[in-house]
Design a protein that fits this description.
The structure holds 2 protein chains of 2 kinds. By secondary structure, chain A is mostly helical. Chain A has 7 helices and 2 strands. Chain A has helices spanning 2-21, 27-31, 50-64, 69-80, 95-125, 129-133, 138-151, and strands at residues 35-36, 41-42. The chains are: A mainly alpha, B alpha/beta.
Chain lengths: 152, 187
C-alpha cells in the first residue's frame, strides 16, 4: 500500500513539473528579472518612479496579450536595451560576470592544491618522531630510565 | 622562481579586480564635461554624432552627422516625464519658427516605450524628427541623468548651449538668436 502511494505521489509530481514550467508569466516573476533602467535598481524595488510604472504597465500589457516570458524579455530589450535584464548576457563586457567567478574558483582550487602538495612534500622530508628517537644521547636515556624506575 | 609563481598569480588577479572596479566606477560616475566646456565657451563637439538612432515612426534612422550644416535643437525626453510635457508646447512652437530658417528640433526618447512616446507626440502635436535611444548609450554620452535635457548644436556640430531641465522661451531665444537671427526669437 505504501509503495503504491509513493508511486502515485511520484507520478503526480512528474506530471506537475511540466505543468508548472508551462505556467504563464506573472508580473511579479518578470519584475524580479529586469531592471528599472532609469532608477538603476531591480524593477521589483522601484515602486514609485514614473519610468518604473510605465515599464510595469508594458509588462502587464504583454502578459495580457498572452506573450511568453522569453517574448516579453525580448520586447523589453528592444525597448530599453540589454541593460534591462538583470542576468548579464554572455557577450561583451557582461561576459566578465560569468568568467570572473569561474576564474576565481579555478585559481582558488589551484592554490589549494598547490598548498596541499607543498605541505605533503614538507611532511615527507621533515624528520619523523620515530627517526629522531634514535638520536637520544646516552645521558638522556639514562635520565629517562631513572625517571621510569622512580615512577614504578 | 617557483616560489614567486603563487604571489605573481595573486597580484595578477588582484590587479584584474582593481581594473574591473575602476571600470565600474568610471561607468557610473556623473559626466559633466560638456557643461564645463560650454560654461567656458569651449563649444565641444556633440558626442555620438555618427550614431544612427532609429526613428520613432519605424521608417529609418537619423544621426546628428546627417543633420550637419543645420542648427539642431537636440531634446532628450520621455513620455513618463512631467516636465517634458510642460515644455512640449514651447518646442512645438520653436519648430514652427526655426524650420523655415533651416534649423530643426530633434527629439530623442530615453527609456520610453514606442506606443507611449507616439501618444505623447500626437497629444502634444509635435511636428519634428523623433528618434529612440535604445539602451541609453547616446544620452549617456551627453551626461543625461534626468529629463528633459536640451542641447543647442550649431551647423558645425558643436554644442553652444544646454539646459538640464525644461526649456523656456528665454533660454531658447538666448541660445538661438545668435545662431539664427531675430526670426528665431519667440517675440
Amino acid at each position: 500500500m505504501t509503495l503504491r502511494a509513493a508511486a502515485v505521489t511520484l507520478a503526480l509530481a512528474l506530471l506537475a513539473a511540466p505543468a508548472a514550467a508551462a505556467q504563464p508569466p506573472t508580473l511579479a516573476g518578470i519584475e524580479d528579472q529586469v531592471m528599472c533602467t532609469v532608477c538603476g535598481v531591480p524593477l521589483s524595488m522601484a515602486r514609485e518612479a514614473p519610468a518604473a510604472k510605465r515599464e510595469r504597465a508594458l509588462i502587464q500589457q504583454l502578459i495580457n496579450e498572452g506573450r511568453s516570458e522569453a517574448e516579453i524579455k525580448a520586447e523589453l530589450v528592444a525597448t530599453y536595451g540589454d541593460g534591462v535584464l538583470i542576468e548579464p548576457r554572455g557577450k561583451g563586457f557582461d561576459l566578465t560576470a560569468w568568467l570572473v567567478p569561474i576564474i576565481l574558483t579555478l585559481a582558488g582550487a589551484a592554490a589549494l592544491a598547490g598548498l596541499l602538495i607543498s605541505w605533503r612534500r614538507r611532511g615527507e622530508t621533515a624528520p619523523s618522531a620515530a627517526s629522531t628517537a634514535g638520536t637520544l644521547s646516552e645521558a638522556d636515556a639514562r635520565l629517562v630510565d631513572e625517571a621510569l624506575r622512580d615512577s614504578d | 622562481m617557483r616560489r614567486l609563481l603563487l604571489p605573481a598569480i595573486a597580484v595578477i588577479i588582484a590587479g584584474g579586480f582593481a581594473a574591473l572596479i575602476a571600470f565600474g566606477v568610471s561607468q557610473t560616475g556623473e559626466d559633466r564635461s560638456i557643461d564645463q566646456a560650454v560654461a567656458a565657451e569651449g563649444r565641444p563637439l556633440a558626442p555620438k554624432a555618427d550614431v544612427k538612432l532609429p526613428t520613432l515612426d519605424g521608417k529609418g534612422a537619423v544621426s546628428l552627422e546627417s543633420l550637419r550644416g543645420r542648427t539642431v535643437v537636440l531634446n532628450i525626453w520621455a513620455s513618463w516625464c512631467p516636465p517634458c510635457r510642460e515644455e512640449a508646447p514651447e518646442l512645438a512652437a520653436l519648430q514652427r519658427r526655426i524650420e523655415p530658417l533651416g534649423a530643426t528640433v530633434l527629439g530623442v526618447t530615453w527609456n520610453d516605450t514606442i506606443p507611449d512616446a507616439r501618444k505623447f507626440i500626437a497629444d502634444a502635436k509635435l511636428d519634428y524628427l523623433q528618434a529612440r535611444d535604445v539602451g541609453g548609450s547616446f544620452a549617456k554620452a551627453y551626461g543625461t541623468k534626468g529629463l528633459p535635457e536640451t542641447f543647442i548644436i550649431d551647423p558645425a556640430g558643436k554644442i553652444t548651449a544646454l539646459r538640464r531641465g525644461a526649456v523656456d522661451a528665454a533660454f531658447l531665444d538666448a541660445a538661438l538668436v545668435p545662431l539664427l537671427g531675430r526670426k528665431a526669437a519667440s517675440k
